[in-house]
User: What shape does this take?
Amino acid sequence: MALDSNHDYSQAELDNHANQLNPDAEAYWDSRGEEMPDNRDDRF
Assistant: This one.
């Protein structure tokens, strides 16, 4: 989902968006309906 430039986002919304794009964050995996791997080094 792209951010709408006409909307004033809260810091929490911006943090959540960034975390959903970061494979080191649990929100990344949650947003994809997956469990965060125990050993994230194996993901690549």
